Amino acid sequence: MESLITAAARALEAGDPLGALNRVALRNDAPSLALRGIAMAQLGDLAKAKALLRSAARAFGPREAVARARCVVAEAEIALVSRDLNWPVKTLAAARATLERHGDLANAAHAGHIEARRLLLVGRPDDAERTLTELGTSPLPPASQVVRELVVAGIAIRRLKTKDARAALDLAAKAARQAGIPALAAEVDSAKLILDTPAARLIARGSEHPLLLGEVERLATSTALVVDTFHHVVRRQGVVASLGTRPVLFALARLLAQAWPADVSREALISGAFQARHVDESHRARLRVEIGRLRTKLKPLADISATRQGFVLSPRKTRDVLVLARPVEEKHASVLAFLSDGEPWSSSALALALGTSPRTVQRALEELARSNKVQSFGHGRARRWMTPPVPGFPTGLLLPGPLMKT
Fold it and tell me: Hey, which of 136, 177, 258, 284 has its CA 20 to 30 A from 114?
């Protein structure tokens, strides 16, 4: 019977979950439960996979700490794919330590990769990089190497280092070919699309055009005055004025930058920045106050001069003014950005990733659902939200090998 366990494990390594199930589907011993759990995860039935892995962890005896730790690692990966970002990370850390103590370095590294991917999802690329550094550079199986390089590429993309991202994705593609698993190759191809898909829009002198990620990277060293709607800053090379906590000032700066070198009327500034339907003298008085505050904020970068109709932006030490805008702008663009990976997200996971309250995210999701931009399934805590997939950071299940040694 152990030959069946070995054959099932090898089938999973080769990306053949149905072949694995054919060998262990009717068995309920601990190794078979674990292998069935991985197979179900690869087939997409994550709820069943989680239940099987938990049963397997309970079924392994007290002396089988390594096998239990492998079950924990597999369950952690399912939690990541399910966007259960509140899954206990200390449990994964303990499992990783157990695997390292017992010499199972490949699965210990995989646990570290899962942790790094979670950190990347919640916007902590520095911590993700630190986790990868802790793992060292010891040789990994090809499938595990794919996962590592995808994380490296994700960190580079977050930091706008497209050359490093391409190098990592090339290594991932090579490792995927060596692994011979089509799903891994598809993950790498999906990740590569990020670098060849418009990541932003450039607005200047009344016109706009899309920018690839590499072009956005080059813009970071441009001598132009840039109004960055991603980070809510106004910058020119190393000089930065942050307006993230001053939405009215940022709105005024963007309106002035989009119209440059022309001026913007007072009515247009009031309507755009204050969302006022009817302009009265109180709005004009407030505009004068806010323009004064904006002048102070932008003093190292630009001046704002009054004209007969309104105000005009006058950049310092440059002849170019650009607006870097999101590819698609709408009220809940940040929520849609996370949902664009095509994976099911809970509102609590989105709140954690966005750094905001679950109630705020829930209201945004309900508005998006009313306009048919997102859809949900499940109820209560099991409720998940999705949107049609577009190219994004790969998050598919990438289990590198069997739970048990053969």
Answer: 177
